[in-house]
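Task card 7
Instruction: Convert sequence to structure tokens.
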Amino acid sequence: MKRLKQTLIKLFITFLFCSNSFSDTEQISSKNVLVIDGDTIILNKKKIRFSGIDAPESFFRGKKQTCKLENQKIFCGEISKKKLTQKIDNQIVKCFIEKNNDRYNRILAECFVNNESLSVYMVKNGYAFDYAKYSKKKYQEYENFAKKNKLGLWKTKFEYPWVWRKKNR
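Output:
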């Protein structure tokens, strides 16, 4: 009973957060979505970067990010992209666009499928990471969950995407 009460309180707080924090932001939605990688989509002809998370690179300056699973190289950027594609699965994606673009002038947003945050889904399942430098640790508890349970890429040896990109500039 206590656990149910805590869960209901968390859901209520999440509802309040979502209903208030996005009320003055631009909202777009569509079923026509192209997944670029595990943290970037094209929706209504707009390239949207999920704010506060970072996923391995499926293609960056001619290179694909790899991880090691049982001493074999795997393309972890491609795996992350595939998981996001499967999650969206031709459903309507709704994005709440932030007021300001990032330093590369990319559109930043938090996007949802059936009222579930795609950012939370990707981090909680181990296919993206809390980008604490920009998220203020918003997704840290989900990353801790994935890490503790060795979900997704936490089963592999990897470099965080921001470290990998720096080495591959």
